[in-house]
Amino acid sequence: MQRRKFVIGMGALASGTAAVIGTGAFSSVEADRQVDVQVTEDANAYLGLDNSGEANDMYFDTSGDEYAVDFVDSSNGGNGVNPNADTVAEDVFTITNQGTQPVEVSLSGSGDLSAQLPGSLSAPSSDGITVALAEDDGDSDDTYELGVGKSVNVDFAINAGTSNLSGTLTIGAEA
Predict the structure, then answer these.
(1) 126-144 pLDDT per residue, tens
(2) Which domain holds residue 63?
C-alpha cells in the first residue's frame, strides 16, 4: 500500500512540476536585428540580368538604371512588330544565378504581358505578349531550377493586332 502512495505521489509531483515550469512554447517573439541591403546594377545582382549574346538581345535595353525589353526602339533597325502578326523573339536576355545556392526562378506579368510555363512559349490567342524561360527543368511547374553560376534565357512571343502593347515583367527567385 505504501508503494502505491509513493508512485501516485511521484506522478502528482511530476505533473505539478511540468505545469509550473511549462513546455517552452511561445506565442510570439519580437526582436530588433540589423539588416544591410546593398543595391547594385541588374547585371551584378544575385540574380543577374544581362544580354544573351544572341541575335535578339538587341531588344534588351541596358541603358537605364533598370533594364527593359523594348521592341519599339528605332535604333534596332525598325519601329515595332508587324500588325496582325505573331512575332517570336527567342533569347532576348539571360538570367544568371550569381548567388551561393540554387534558386527556383519564375516569371509573371501584368498589363498586356503574361507568363507561360518554362520551355513552352507560344503566341497568345489574342493581342498580347507572352514570355517564358527558354528551358524546362522537367518538374512540370512554373519554375525553373537555376543552379549556382547557371543561366537561362528568356523568350518573348507577341500577338499584335493594330494596337500598341506594354506590360511589366516580374522575375522571381526562391531558394
Answers:
(1) 999 999 999 999 888 999 9
(2) 42-174
